[in-house]
Amino acid sequence: MRKSQFLKKPVNIVFLSLIFLILFNPFTIISAGERGVLMRFGEVQKQILEEGIHFIIPLVNTVQKLSVRIQKQDLRAEASTKDLQDVFNEIALNWHLNPDQVNHIYQQIGTENEIIDNIINPSIEEIVKAVLARYTAEEIIIKREELKSEIDTLLTEKLAKYNLEIDDISLVHIEFSPLFSQAVEAKQIAEQDAKKAGFQVIKAQKDAQVRVNLAKGEAEAHSILQESLTPEILQYQSIKQWNGNLPLIMGKDDVRFLNLDLEDLQKLNKQKK
Q: Distance of alpha carbon 54 from its chain centroid, rounded?
């Protein structure tokens, strides 16, 4: 009697319903950027819960939420080059789960941390070592974009088998052993010194060629001048510079005047007038 009377009161029914909802919660909410893996007594179902609120059967159904947003994974991988140099790589990988296959991903691999530890990190290390082994240390520096593209292609193919998709991969930093770095620095300094010496040689050759050309020019000018200076021209230049006074030529025994042609003097006087 008391139980029936208790249930007849609406307030009591609401109270019992709230207790039921709190204890068993027949609803689940899938937030933005997530997918829900629906399980029935622990068995993964084909249905994937999209974003929003969903009704589930308490004690029968459970839901595992997985993020399908782009995630970043940083990893430092060590490898050896074709010429047996140790190289250390800092790699940043942007990846996400295939939203349509999250039930298979959870069933085969597990949670996001298990995906990173068991699939992504080992795959990066394996592919980076395989690719770098085909390049020399110098080629790794020169062909960085080619190296990145090859790692991206191989890693995309490998992770696709696990329904994981790559958005981008970056070779953040490539570092060689201290001994190799010192050798590279010494080589660069030697190459710079060689280029500098080469420039100096080229400059010296050009300077010498300039001096040769100047000497040839002066010699040709002198040759042309000698050919053009006839006795008449020399005499005319002498008369043109004469100031009207007869120069004396002092000898040992006598005094002589410079021999000038009278006609030349008359012509000069006419020109001055």
A: 49
Task: Answer yes or no: are the C-beta atoms of 35 and 65 closer than 8 Å.
Answer: yes
Burial class (CB in 10 A: 0-12, 13-18, 19+), 27: exposed
Does one domain contain both 82 and 163? Answer: yes
Q: Is 78 in the same domain as 177?
A: yes
Q: Which residues pair with 48 in a beta bridge?
A: 37
Whole-structure pTM value: 0.60
Q: What size, in residues, is the chain?
A: 273
Structure-token match 């690719």, residue found: 131
Tens-digit pLDDT profile for residues 85-119? 888 889 999 999 999 999 999 999 999 999 999 99
Task: State how many domains the chain has.
Answer: 3
Q: Residue 90 has which token pair?
A: 């800092």
Supply the pLDDT for residue 134.
93
Residues 6+ apart with CB under 8 A from 48: 35, 36, 37, 38, 99, 100, 102, 103
| Residue, of 207 and 273, whose pLDDT is higher | 207
- pLDDT digit string, tens, across residues 53-65: 998 888 889 999 9
Please report the DSSP string for 227-268 in residue order.
HH--HHHHHHHHHHT--SPPPEEE-SS-EEE----HHHHHHH
Q: Tell whether 51 and 93 lie within a shared domain.
A: no
Please check whether residue 107 lies inside any domain of the structure.
yes
Q: Which residue is listed with tokens 């937030």?
A: 31
Give residue 55's domain range.
Answer: 2-67
Q: Tell me how far apart the alpha carbons of residues 57 and 48 are, in angstroms, rounded to a whole number.
A: 15
In a domain, 187, yes or no: no
User: What is the predicted pLDDT for the residue at 1?
Assistant: 47
